[in-house]
Write a structure and sequence with these properties.
Layout lengths: L29 E6 L13 H4 L3 H9 L1 E5 L10 H9 L9 H9 L8 E9 L12 H7 L4 E6 L2 E6 L12 H7 L2 H6 L8 H7 L3 E5 L14 E4 L4 H9 L2 E3 L12 H21 L23 E6 L1 H7 L3 H28 L15 E6 L2 E3 L4 E3 L3 E6 L7 H24 L7 H29 L13 E2 L1 H11 L1
Parallel strand pairs: 1-9, 1-10, 2-14, 7-8, 7-9
Antiparallel strand pairs: 2-13, 3-5, 3-6, 4-5, 10-13, 11-12
Helix pairs in contact: 2-12, 3-9, 4-9, 5-6, 10-12, 11-12, 13-14
The structure holds zinc ion.
Length: 485
């Protein structure tokens, strides 16, 4: 498939599909890490950010887990988190999602019946670069006197009112709005009270407004069995509208430098509560949000924990290739590594399926971008993304098989004499089994020695690694994970 193209696969996606989520097994937990905008189209043979980033934790998941190529953006939609994240959560939008409703939900901004929240992006007219939305407030206060204006951080703001947005589409030059406003209106505009003279000057310098078009509001198809850990941005808003429980740890900004360790701690807290709740027989689900892993739904009801990482996308929008790579590496180190370790410990705490002592249902950890965002042009990309699905209880690849065989070998060698001692009773079979033991012991080191080589050649979570794989949809992936359990 050519880079960045839209594949003729509309029939693959059912519009408005709402998949009811079920874990791999009852009691199993799915962890999903969404690396926002982390992929990008491979261009001219140049390595992508995912290829350039050093990601040992992700590499280990890929060596032991399964890679898929995932279409997260339906062919009829624009590439963006407002369309890709709902698909990852189980709902394929039938039409463009209302970004204003998402932003309001993300921040708890009230939108009354009959009102509409419109997100407006502010850019410099000269080069289209993102501008500080605060610079736009003075002119907007004049242009939209009946709207409530909220700064959302960076270049984003929200205008809420019953009235439609007048004259903002097509784009208007900001300076014009400000220059044409009578001095008395400027003086009485509420937002101007806090605007400095400098801000007013900047506003005259030609900013452009980019209102997002109206769209549909995601339906409430989830409940508190899904917990989404995210900064107050699109992922949190989408999750809240879909009905999931949302946790925003202090320090989570959705930008480079965001406190990923705090997100990991929040996820591990939910996982720990789910583990304790399951062993205590706790049950029951309450819908709604919680500030942290403390109060919330019955812990045993948690089936899926989603952690959103916004920094790769933000860095790519700012054309900062190094910051995008650093953001991916930080997610690998501060988030993915501890989550994988926790799932390994959780599986080990109840024994191993290999010796028949396992009672823990299958947990899974999935990592994928929601969509691409190329730092070369700062634009989103709808190309299907690479995705890895891993479980500590499964060992489909040689890399994990090696050490496991090595561990089993001494046990096999010990077992053989005991079986040999049974020989008088089972005269025919025992000697053969005993004779096999040394051979098994010899084989194990060879398999173990293969592990490093397998790890070196194992595919990584990259665009090129999955380029030849068949296309999968998020809902299909959930189904296949269930089937494999
Ligand atoms: Zn973006």
């Amino acid at each position: 498939m050519p880079d960045g193209g839209v594949e003729p696969a509309a029939a693959e996606c059912e519009r408005g599909e709402a998949a009811s989520w079920r874990p791999a097994q009852a009691g199993g937990v799915e962890l999903l890490v969404i690396l926002d905008g982390a992929s990008e189209p491979p261009r001219d043979g140049r390595p992508t950010s995912l290829e350039r980033a050093a990601t040992p934790a992700l590499d280990a998941l890929c060596a032991e887990g399964a890679l898929t190529r995932l279409r997260t953006v339906a062919p009829w939609l624009e590439a963006g988190s407002e369309h890709a994240i709902p698909a990852l959560l189980g709902w394929t939008p039938p039409a463009s999602v209302d970004r204003g409703a998402v932003e309001a939900a993300a921040r708890g901004i009230a939108v009354e019946d009959g009102e509409r929240a419109c997100r407006i992006d502010v850019r410099h007219a000269a080069d289209g670069a993102r501008a500080d939305a605060a610079q736009a407030l003075p002119a907007l206060a004049v242009a939209l006197p009946s709207h409530r204006l909220h700064l959302l951080g960076g270049h984003r703001l929200l205008a809420v009112a019953r009235a439609p947005l007048p004259g903002l589409d097509p784009l208007v030059a900001f300076g014009a709005a400000l220059a044409s406003a009578p001095a008395s209106a400027l003086a009485s505009a509420p937002a101007l009270a806090s605007a400095s003279a400098g801000e007013r000057d900047v506003a005259r310098e030609g900013l452009t407004l980019h209102p997002w078009r109206e769209g549909i509001v995601p339906p409430r198809i989830l409940d508190a069995r899904t917990v989404v850990i995210a900064a107050p941005g699109a992922a949190a808003g989408l999750a809240r509208l879909l009905g999931a429980r949302v946790i925003t740890p202090a320090g989570a900004t959705g930008r480079p430098g965001s406190d990923l360790a705090a997100k990991a701690a929040a996820a591990l807290g939910v996982l720990r509560d789910a583990t304790a709740g399951a062993s205590n027989g706790a049950a029951g689900a309450r819908c709604g949000d919680g500030p942290g892993p403390g109060p919330g739904p019955g812990p045993a009801s948690v089936e899926r924990i989603v952690v959103h990482v916004g920094a790769p996308d933000e860095a790519a929008h700012e054309h900062d290739a190094a910051a995008k790579i650093a953001a991916i590496e930080a997610a690998d180190r501060d988030l993915i590594a501890p989550l994988a370790a926790a799932l390994r410990a959780r599986a080990g705490a109840v024994g191993s399926p290999l010796d028949g002592t396992a009672s823990r249902p299958v947990d899974t950890l999935r990592v994928c971008p929601d969509h691409g965002c190329d730092p070369a042009d700062g634009r989103h990309d709808a190309t299907p993304v690479p995705c890895v699905t891993w479980s500590p209880q499964s060992a489909p690849r040689t890399a994990q098989a090696g050490p496991r065989f090595e561990t089993d070998a001494p046990r096999a060698a010990q077992t053989a004499p005991r079986i040999a001692a049974d020989a008088p009773r089972t005269a025919k079979t025992a000697p053969r089994i005993a004779a096999d033991a040394p051979r098994a012991a010899q084989t194990a080191p060879r398999i173990a020695a293969d592990a490093p080589r397998a790890a070196q050649t194992a595919p990584r979570l990259t665009e090129r690694a999955v380029a030849a794989l068949p296309l999968t949809l998020p809902v299909e992936l959930a189904t296949s994970v269930r089937a494999a359990a």
